[in-house]
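Field reference: sequence -> structure
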Amino acid sequence: MDRIRQVREMMGLPPATPQQMAGVVEAAIDDMTAAARFVIARADEYGVDPSRVILGGWSAGARCALYAAYAEYVPCVGVVSLSGTMDIADIAAHRRSDPMPPLLMLHAELDIGYIAETTPRLGEAMRAAGCDARSIQVLGRDHWYAAEAMTDAGVTVQQAMRAALRDWTGI
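Structure field:
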């Protein structure tokens, strides 16, 4: 919210209301959901194997991927969340009986406050709900980390993502 407030100030706009922010977030989640469903519905046309779809994003895009997979139920074989989060209460609110796709969450040691605080708890909550969720911390970095940054898993961000993609898709 702070970044949005700063941009709105630079543009001479009043602060966004909580209702406006909720609308923006909901619209972004709807966009990712619609885009993923569009590609899945046209998998043959685009040469996509629908059994290997993975949702992912960074920051706000990661939030959209989390909600598209776990609240809007877009079919996928995994979710990659780079410094994104989901309201923990929403996990229970949207939980269904079918298996949840596995989740790889990365966040920076010096990430934006609420992301650094909620990511480990989100991982615990997802695991408690039956999700194969893994949380990895990017060492010594802030929200703007590179793919080459080292993690507490002893691999780079890119290596962690590649391993998850191989595990989930078999390729």
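Note: The beta strands are 54-58, 78-82, 103-110, 133-142.
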